[in-house]
Fold this protein.
Amino acid sequence: MCIVSLYKNMSRKTILASGEFYHLYNRGTEKRKIFMDKTDYERFLALLYLCNSTLDVRIDNVKQASQQGSTLLEKTFQMDRGNTLIDLNAYCLMPNHFHILAHEHTEGGISRFMQKLTTAYTMYFNTRYKRMGALFQGKYRAEHAKSDRYLKYLISYIHLNPIKLVESKWKETGIKNKIAAKEYLRRYRYSSFLDYGGHQREEIRIITRDSLPRYFETPKGFTDSVTEWLSYRS
């Protein structure tokens, strides 16, 4: 991976470099839920798409159009967002936190994207639930995928997060029912697992796969590689 330029975000130790991959994540303040229902999840998905743009976010236009028949996500993905700030390679939304795998292709792109995303969602959430103050637990965390092996592992790690919702201690005690666990992943709508697994849906426009190495030749190859980790036990 070629480093084109470097800059340091003074609020964290991680150096963000153009041409590199990062695991980005944050959780609700005091571990509170940040997604209360389907509407919240879909708003965040819409923002993953819209905030990855050099343009300002204009979600009010989408909201008005969605009230006329189309869903929020349908109208969002019809919008021309212009040039992107990052390659958003993978994501997973959990009730009280989120994970993103991102490739920095523009200097400062990750910082700008994350600022737009968390600000826009916090404003939405606070308005909807009549609350004030910070929603997220400080600054987002960024871990550099320093090696090819670790980058491939991160893809599986991010997409396996929903298993915690059905078997919270699976890594320590092992999976009790692998068939049920795999089926849960296939039904979980709030990650990019389905998009890599070959399902045809609008959400595929959120992610960019071209910047990733070709780890998976087929959707089945991806699914098999990720679910192999269900045999892992720490």
